[in-house]
Amino acid sequence: LTGQYFDISGSSDAIAYAGLASGFSPNSNGFIGELAYIPFGASQAPGWPWLNTRIGLQYTYYNKFDGTTVGAHQNNTLFLHAWFAM
Amino acid sequence: MRAYAKAINDGTGGNDDKDYVPPISMMAIVGFTHAQTPLSPPTSPYAQNDNTVLSPVSAFWGGAITDHIGAFAQVTYNALMVGTFGMRAAINPSIDPTLATGTTGTLLQPISTRMSALMLSTSIMAVTTGSPCAEATSMKTRSSMRRSPMAALPIRQISSTRFICRAHSPGAPITASY
What we know:
heterodimer; A: mainly beta; 4-stranded antiparallel beta sheet; B: alpha+beta; 3-stranded antiparallel beta sheet; 3 helices; 7 strands; disordered N terminus; disordered C terminus
């Protein structure tokens, strides 16, 4: 289980951030929480001992998104992932 | 290379005479992303919300060339940024005054051409101190792999959690735990 506060800041640039939201600013901040499970951390995957996996559920909560706090929560994102390495 | 590329066993012993295993490895992440508010079009090639994306996908090769020189190569594919790792690279019209006034021209191009990349990288490493442990350790750490064929470098597994690295220079074996 991991938690994180993040704050991204940078100068506004109408060209570099032409695709971003209001103000052409990259400034964003919020929280990220993640719950992860590694099935074969202590044991071994049956039949494939060098397989490693990681399953994670991550939620990103924005207080500010691309320079504005208005509607920032609408960018909140839930991310479920499975990571395989062998 | 065959002398180093010994198979990694089940963690029950340090036998030298194991089957050959190619010094290759791979990793992949498949993710599902749900945003609180759906993206505004165009989001091609993705849906406006609830996308399942396979990214990145990597393949690795690493091995010894001589006693003190090794190589490491990887091929990695990264999909478009939208929907990857919870990052959101698109624009929400409700918070974008530019869009609110109807000038959507600047949005059409960046999303569909946003970074999709195939990367090929190769590195050659020289171990100068006669202790290959450091290289083997960093490679294993970087690839986040336990008991993977990455251990094709001079490293021998003796249990599920302990390894012995054999230095080429005279001296006692260096023991490292993971």
